[in-house]
Amino acid sequence: MPEASDTKGILRQNLIDAGCSQEIIQRCMDLVQRKNTAEMKRILATHRRTLLDAVHAEQKKIDCLDYLVYKMDKDQQP
């Protein structure tokens, strides 16, 4: 765990925790060094969309299972 004063270490750990690839992490660290926050925000927004798409795909699978269980329960009713 980085020290509270280690802002680059904290940033790196946050990117790791967010599931960013090593490539994204390195690009973001380079962009921080160059103070290019606009490009970094674009990269993070793209990663966020990727994560959200994955969440939606998994939610669809859960919905399918919920429907299957609902149908099974309904079909067992007299």
Brief summary of the model shown:
The chain has 78 residues and is mainly α. The protein has three helices and no strands. The termini are far apart.
Question: If you had to describe this structure to a student in words, what would you say it looks like?
Answer:
By secondary structure, the protein is mainly α. The protein has one domain (7-76). 81% of the residues lie in helices and 0% in strands. The protein has helices at residues 7-17, 22-33, 37-76. The protein starts with 6 loop residues before the first helix and ends with a helix.
Question: What structural keywords apply?
Answer:
78 residues; 0% strand
Global structural class: mainly alpha
What is the chain-wise order of helices and strands?
Answer: HHH
Number of strands: 0
Helix content: over 70%
- As a percent range, the share of strand residues is under 5%
How confident overall, as mean pLDDT? 94
How far the N terminus sits from the C terminus, by CA atoms, comes to: 58 Å
Tally of alpha and pi helices: 3
Number of domains: 1
pLDDT < 50 runs, ≥5 residues: none
Apparent shape: elongated
Alpha-carbon Rg, integer:
20 Å
Largest sheet entry: none
